[in-house]
Structures are given as C-alpha cells and as structure tokens.
Design goal:
The complex is a heterotrimer. Chain A is an all-alpha fold. Chain A has eight helices and no strands. Chain A has helices at residues 2-6, 15-48, 63-90, 93-125, 133-154, 158-190, 200-203, 206-249. Chain C has one helix at residues 9-62. Chain B: InterPro entries: Cyt_c_biogenesis_CcmB (IPR003544), Cyt_c_CcmB_bac (IPR026031).
C-alpha cells in the first residue's frame, strides 16, 4: 500500500491527490457514521427532550439548526480563505479543489441560517426580516458565495479559475469583514440603541447547552463529510478532464 | 503612466457613448425614481441622498467592463504587461482613467440632479464631497472586478455579481455622509471612514488587480 | 412521542423541515455528482487500460 503511494505511477499525475484520495477514502465511512450519530442524538435530544423557553416558547428549538448552520456558514468562508492561501502559496491542487467544493455548502448553510432566522423572527420580533446588522451581513455573505461560485463556473481553464477565485476569496474576505463593521455602524445610524438581535449568552442556559453543542458537532461533522465527498468528486473530475484532454492530443 | 492615462482618456472621449453613457444612465435613474415612489416632495427629499448615491454607483458599474476588455481584445494589454512600467501601475492608471471619465462627471452633475429629487438645502455640499471622496474607491474596486473577468466572453453580468458585494462598505459610508449632511447631523466619523476606505483601496487593490490580470494573460 | 410545541408548532416544524430538506438536497446532489464522476472516470480509465494492453499485446506479438 505504502509502496504504491510513494511510487508515482501514471495513475495520478500528482502525488498529493493520490494520497488525499487514499486518506479521505479511509476516513469517509468513519466520518459518516460519527456525523450521523452526533447529528441524530443532538437533534432528537434538542427537539424532543428540552423544555420550552419561558419567553420564547417552543421556538427556542429552532436554535439547534439555526446556530450550527450560521457557524458553518461563516467558518466555511474561513476555510475557503485558508485553502485559497494554501493553493496560492504551496500549489496543492487538492487545496484549490477543496475551496471549490466548499462554496455550495457554505451557500446552503447561509440560506438555512437566513430562513430559520426568518421563521424564528416572525413570532418573536413580529417580522420576517429586519435590516439588523447580523441578518444583513448574512445576506451579503450569501452574495459573496454566489459571486465566488459564478466565477468558478465561468472560467473554463481549471487552473486559471482556481487562481482567480483564490484572489477573489482573499479580497472578498477583507471586504466581508469591512462590510460587517460597516453594517454595525449603519444600523446604529438608523435606529439608535434599538436592537432586535437576541442576546445569545442570555438565551442559552444549561438545559439547551449540551444538545446545542452536540448539534454543532454534528453540523461540523456533516460539513467535513460533504467536503470530503465533494473534494473527491472534484479530484476525479480533474483527472477525468486530464485524461480526456490527453486522449484528444494522442 | 501619464502617456497611458492620456491615451485612455482620449479613447474614452473619442470612442463616443462610453463617456456620456454613465451620465445619461444616472439622469435616467433619477428621473425614474419619482415614477416609482410617487411625486411627493417630502418623500423624495428623504430618499434623495441615498438614491443619488445608488444611481452614481450603478452608473459606475455600467462602464466597468470597458476598462480592460477593449485592451484585452486588441492585445494591447499584453503589450502593457511587458512594458517597463509595472502592471500594478497600469491597473492604477486604468482606475484613474475610469474615475476621470465616470466618477468625476457623476460627482459634478449630482448636485443638479439633487434639485430634481428635492434634496434638502444643507445636503448639496456633503453629497458632492462624499461622492468626490467615495467614487475613486468604486473605480478601483471596479478595476479589480474587471481584471478578474477580463478573459471571459460574457463577463458583464458576472462582473456585476462580483463587484456589487464589494461595493457595500463604500455605499454604506458614502450614503451615510450624504444622508447625515442632508439632515444636518454630525458626519465626521463616516466621512473619515469613507476616506479611509478610498485610500486603502487605492493603495492595496491595484496589486490584486495586477495579479488577476497576470493570471488571465497567462 | 411528539412534544407539545404550543402555538409555535408550525414555525418550529417549518424551520426543521427547511433545514433538513436543504441538507438532504445538498447531500443527495453531492452523492449523485460523486457517483457520476466516479463511473465516468472508471470507464475512461478502463478503456485506456484496454487500449494500452492491446498495444502491448500487438507489440510483443510483432516482436
């Protein structure tokens, strides 16, 4: 096994993707089982066995999907930033492909966070949507994901696409952070002191804490699982493209 | 760089349409606004500053793909890349040329259009000032977007999708200055941050634009 | 077994339905893409191997 991995054959052009495929193939079933167990226990515990909040009633149960998805939505972009930097600096192809694989997950998580937030906000704040900085920055984060994915889809040469999207991801990160602070300022400018945002620390008491932690762990596991699956797909797609191109050349 | 700037300016003015198009678009946006929200002058004066900023931003967006696309098509971008001046300088010069042909005229006509929207008396100075300070950032950010999409056949829509989220901070602070100015409130903080954004983008983004151009030319 | 969700039942259930639904869609799409590229890659690789062994066979046959 190890000999096959260290000796470069024609099967995979790069040593790195081969090693990634071997490792991820080994990890995949374990991650899948772990994720399924954690997510199931966390969600069932949260949904069936936690009391209602005295203020929010049963809507507090939305926290078990809202908070984890929001965390993944933000940290997914962070992961894309890191993998983009790794690609630009170290030239690991898998890194660029992982960033590409991550973007749709992040976009989906952003949508989940926005939708569950809207459903939560409707009975609690009396409105589906408010231009609160936190909500607005998630909407803008979603736009960043869209632009990033559109650029990946639009550029034909995969290496050029990887580099351009990496540059966009780095510049976009700076602007995303800037937007976040701009929105805090902007909202304060609009309605001074009146904050619709719930204080998370106040909200989470011990009864909700452990199932929430499990759900977050489950979402992180799910994220890793999807990243592995999707990156493996991207690596295979690249290999396929290379083979077809070589076939045409021959 | 100055020669390049002169060449770009001459091309923008002579090529017809490109120069006046953004201004015409700005005028149309402002004209259509009362049709959409109603002719009530009190309503208009509340939203005037924001509409003028939004209109200027969208007009700016219109001409972005012209910054690099023409040079890319006829190959002069490749000549510029091998020219003695650094590509970062080329990117910065392109942004300056874009601002001089788009941002500056928009800034100058904005007060006149403010009259149409019943902008409050105190707002004219601050609207003009905020546009003068903020539109360079729009041009620089737009040049970066143009650099990313220059190799694409139909990059126009993609360019908007990429550039518009990047415009968010500039728009927030720029419109905030204009709005506070119109309402006679204190506006030191947003004005300072707006200037900071513009200076930072001018200083840093040409490097990213040059990197994107290099990738696209390879 | 169903807990009493009170007057917010519709909201809570909708939130869970939306989240789980989107997660399921993401998972299914990812798995389907994975399967598609895997079979396509296997086909191309097998045809390459078949071609390579055929060439080898003819080469040794001629020699």
């Amino acid at each position: 096994m190890s000999e096959r991995l260290t000796r470069p054959t024609s099967l995979w052009e790069y040593a790195n993707p081969r090693r990634f495929m071997a490792l991820s193939g080994f990890l995949l079933p374990w991650v899948a089982i772990g994720t399924a167990a954690t997510l199931l226990i966390g969600l069932v515990w949260g949904f069936f066995f936690t009391p209602d909040d005295y203020r929010q009633g049963s809507t507090v149960k939305i926290i078990y999907v809202h908070v984890p998805s929001a965390m993944i939505a933000i940290n997914c972009w962070l992961m894309m930033l890191i993998t983009s930097l790794v690609w630009l600096i170290r030239r690991h192809h898998v890194s660029a492909l992982a960033a590409k694989a991550a973007a749709p997950i992040g976009a989906t998580m952003t949508v989940i966070a926005l939708l569950t937030g809207a459903i939560w906000g409707q009975p609690m704040w009396g409105t589906w949507w408010a231009w609160d900085p936190r909500l607005t920055s998630f909407l803008i984060l979603f736009l960043f994901y869209l632009g990033y994915m559109a650029l990946w889809a639009a550029v034909e040469n995969p290496d050029t696409a990887a580099e351009l999207t990496s540059v966009l991801c780095i510049v976009g990160s700076v602007f995303a952070v800037l937007s976040r602070y701009a929105l805090v300022f902007w909202n304060q400018g609009l309605h001074q002191g009146a904050s619709l945002s719930l204080d998370k620390e106040e909200n989470v008491s011990d009864v909700f804490y452990w199932p929430l932690l499990l759900c977050i762990a489950g979402f992180v596991g799910f994220f890793i699982l999807l990243i592995l699956i999707r990156t493996r797909t991207e690596v295979r797609a690249r290999r396929l493209q290379a083979l077809i191109a070589r076939e045409r050349m021959a | 760089m100055i020669a390049l700037l002169k060449r770009d300016l001459a091309l923008a003015v002579r090529a017809g349409g490109g120069f006046g198009l953004a201004l015409a678009f700005f005028l149309i946006v402002v004209t259509l606004t009362p049709f959409a929200v109603g002719p009530n002058s009190a309503t208009l004066s509340v939203i005037a500053a924001g509409i003028l900023w939004l209109g200027a931003l969208l007009s700016c967006l219109l001409s972005l793909d012209r910054i690099l696309a023409l040079d890319f098509e006829d190959g002069s971008l490749e000549l510029l890349a091998t020219a003695p001046i650094p590509l970062e300088g080329v990117a910065a010069t392109k942004a300056v040329a874009h601002w001089l042909t788009t941002g500056l005229p928009l800034t100058l006509v904005a007060p006149a259009l403010g009259v149409l929207l019943n902008l409050p008396e105190g707002g004219y100075l601050w609207l003009t000032l905020s546009l003068a300070i903020g539109t360079p950032a729009l041009s620089v950010i737009g040049t970066f977007g143009a650099a990313l999409t220059v190799g694409l056949k139909r990059g126009g829509l993609l360019l908007s999708l990429i550039v518009l989220p990047l415009y968010v901070p500039t728009l927030i602070f720029g419109a905030e200055v204009a709005r506070r100015g119109a309402e006679g409130m204190s506006l030191d903080t947003p004005l300072a941050i707006l200037a900071g954004i513009t200076l930072a983008t001018i200083a840093l983004l040409p490097f990213a634009s040059a990197a994107a151009i290099r990738i696209n030319l390879r | 077994m169903m807990p009493d969700l009170g007057k917010y039942a519709a909201d809570v259930l909708a939130a869970y339905a939306v989240s789980l639904g989107l997660i399921a869609v993401l998972l299914i799409v990812s798995l389907r893409q994975s399967r598609k590229t895997r079979t396509a890659l296997r086909q191309v690789e097998e045809s390459r191997q078949a071609k390579a062994s055929a060439q080898q066979g003819s080469a040794t046959g001629n020699g």
